[in-house]
Write a structure and sequence with these properties.
13 helices, 13% strand, alpha/beta, Aspartate Aminotransferase, domain 1, 13 strands, 2 domains, seven-stranded mixed beta sheet, three-stranded antiparallel beta sheet, Aspartate Aminotransferase, domain 2, binds pyridoxal-5'-phosphate
Length: 383
């Protein structure tokens, strides 16, 4: 039976609470960085169980500032995964360092920690893993390698709220963690990001660097009735978050556990039902050590043509996506760093097979079953 209902791949989970909170900020006339940002930072840090949260304008900015504060610069190397969005490696380029890719593990699609040490050179200064789709990387192994080689561990947690590793939230384990609040993320402020760290020596300069290196932001000056006097104490960037974004973020944080339950429930239905199709492998399931954030639900198709599969679902009004085209297959990364086809076989093999199915809290169980039935029909026609 044809599905007439359009099932979007992703949608932000917004209701009147966010609209009211943002309206209040607009009505207050204090619309850039102020008290709401501070409240959001406090609430976010408390939620994760981490000492510091520093709000910024995007995850890309969060990654960039993390690399700066960790002292990474030109001629340094940073180990990361090719299986990610370009922002991860782009931030490494911002500081003049080289992204050194290490292949992924075929099951989790996260960086293969057993291959990291072979890639370490005297120039390596940091490891930048990504918790793909929201499944935590092996943080024990990453911490062990970082400590033994004196490297900073900066994790790209764009997909990973509220993922947990051995009972601790992602964002409270690495030296520095970078979150994204982009429109499709589990917690969204439209655009936005957060850096979290337990290290005071990182937190203090980060708060200053994100707004031009100025020692007191406008809100602090206004509160002290000192509107114009300030010093510039460190190198600066224009990466601050606004109170409009933070007001929305506070509402989203209140709903985070509820949205997570919905995602987890939908993912569980997919896991159970899709396991019945031998032509598909479902994502690695959470276990005692790992709570999955279920940002993306990525299946791997072991039969037929992936693009035809995506097209068949599109014709049935179901929107899917593909995460990711490995970075070493893009022209820029080949021309700038000399990467080429064949360099990272697991990433390439996964890319050929992956499909991200609709997953967001605004879906219904009915819609999840429509997706599953449509997949079943497609696969039965191939037999
Ligand atoms: C893995 C990963 N890292 C970084 C980013 C960049 O996030 P932002 O758009 O907040 O800069 C994204 C965005 O989708 C992402 O998926």
């Amino acid at each position: 039976m044809a599905n007439n209902r359009f099932i979007p791949f992703s949608r932000p989970w917004i209701d009147d609470t966010e609209i009211e909170a943002v309206s209040q900020v607009l009505a207050s006339k204090w619309i850039s960085t102020g008290n709401r940002v501070r409240e959001f930072e406090r609430a976010f840090a408390e939620y994760l169980g981490v000492k510091h949260a520093i709000a910024v304008s995007s995850c890309t900015a969060a990654l960039h500032l993390s690399l700066v504060v960790a002292g990474i610069g030109s001629d340094d190397e940073v180990i990361t995964t090719p299986y990610t969005f370009t922002a991860t490696a782009e931030a490494i380029r911002y500081v003049g360092a080289k992204p050194v890719f290490v292949d992924i593990h075929p099951d989790t699609l996260n960086i293969d920690t057993s291959k990291i040490e072979q890639a370490i050179t005297p120039r390596t200064k940091a490891i930048l893993p990504v918790h793909i789709a929201g499944i935590p990387c092996d943080m024990n192994a990453l911490q062990d390698i970082s400590q033994r080689h004196n490297l900073t561990l900066i994790d790209d947690a764009a997909h990973a709220i509220p993922a947990e590793y051995r009972g601790q939230h992602i964002g409270s384990i690495g030296d520095l963690s970078a979150f994204s609040f982009y429109a499709n993320k589990n917690l969204t402020t439209g655009e936005g990001g957060m850096i979290t760290t337990n290290n005071d020596a990182f937190a203090e300069p980060l708060r200053t660097m994100r707004l031009h290196g100025i020692d007191k932001d406008a809100w602090a000056r206004q509160s002290q009735r000192n509107i114009w006097h300030y010093d510039i104490t460190t190198e600066g960037y224009k990466y601050n978050m606004t109170d409009i974004q933070a007001a929305m973020g506070l509402c989203q944080l209140m709903k985070l556990n509820k949205q997570h339950e919905r995602r987890r429930n939908f993912a569980q239905i997919y896991q159970t039902e899709l396991a019945k199709f031998p032509q598909i492998s479902t994502p690695v399931a959470p276990d005692n050590a790992r709570e999955h954030a279920w940002h993306l639900y990525i299946i791997q198709l072991h039969t037929g043509n992936r693009d035809e599969f995506v097209e068949a679902l599109r014709e049935a009004n179901i929107e899917c996506s593909v995460h990711y085209i490995p970075l070493h297959l893009f022209n820029f990364y080949q021309e700038r760093y000399g990467y080429g086809v064949g360099d990272f076989r697991c990433a390439e093999a996964a890319f050929e097979r992956v499909v991200s199915l609709p997953l967001h809290p605004g879906l219904t169980e009915d819609e999840i079953h429509i997706v599953i039935n449509t997949i079943g029909n497609f696969l039965s026609q191939m037999d």
